Amino acid sequence: MCTAMKFNGCTLQDTPGDRNKVWKWHIQDPASQRLTWNKPPKSVLVIKKIRDATLLEPFKELCIFLTERKSMIVYVEKKVLEDPAISGDENFGAITKKFCTFREDLDDISNRVDFIICLGGDGTLLYASSLFQESVPPVMAFHLGSLGFLTPFKFDTYQSQVTQIIEGNAAIVLRSRLKVRVHKENWDKKARVDDKGIILTNRDIENGHKAVQYQVLNEVVVDRGPSSYLSNVDLFLDGHLITTVQGDGVIVSTPTGSTAYAVAAGASMIHPNVPAIMITPICPHSLSFRPIVVPAGVELKIMLSRDARNTAWVSFDGRKRQEICHGDSITITTSCFPVPSICFRDPVNDWFESLAQCLHWNVRKKQNYLSSEDEEF
Question: What keywords are annotated for this sequence in UniProt (predicted)?
Answer without folding.
Answer: Kinase, NAD, NADP, Transferase
